[in-house]
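ok trying this again, last paste got cut off
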Amino acid sequence: MAVGTLTTIPVPAPTVIDKRVAGGAMLLAPLASIPLAAVAALIVWGGDAIGLFPLATAALALGAVALGSRGLHLDGLADTADGLGASYDRERALEVMRRGDSGPTGVATLVLVLLVQCGALTGAILRGHGIVAVVVAMLAGRCVLSLCCVRGVPSARPSGLGATVAESVPRCAALGVLLAAAGLASLSPGLRWWNGPLAIVAGYAVATLLLARCRQRLGGVTGDVLGACVEAAVAAALVFVLV
């Protein structure tokens, strides 16, 4: 479920999807996304090797990740922004998010977040740490999925992806993912030991704020909210990884 949902890698569908399977998939999200991080790292390495302009390298790396995840998280970011900007009526906001199109708020949010991601990754590439930065950011983005699905954060709808995974992750397990990610990030080659953990914490902090806002306005999480939290965490991690 983790690989099939978060990547385009063809895998057999799970025979049963219940809370246990859904929770396991969210906990394994960082591992399932390792192939995407590897592709992004390879593009950054290749772009640097051939002298490609760093901004182009950053855009290609992030574009490859978006392609490898079907643009799922970017779509969620745009839909969530449209929903939050639509009105203060919960049902109206959820209806806007359910549509397939993107309004001006969603498009503007998408562009701005991608600009932050590309700009921050470009800076990391120029400083010689592009590979580490993109891997840590991908890790941070997928780790926050367990936070979004922790017990106590309900689904905003009775059906859909959000309802399937909502409240499927025990709090201790979500905390374990955070600590494991921070610990691994502290071993990032070429960075000070605290740069990696700071990026992970920054990603979690931004995702937590967005999640709290969505819970207040929408009543809980949806699949779109999960995607929005992923992209917001990636942006924050890229900004803070070299601070």
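PB: full thing came through this time. The CA atoms of residues 96 and 239 lie 30 Å apart.
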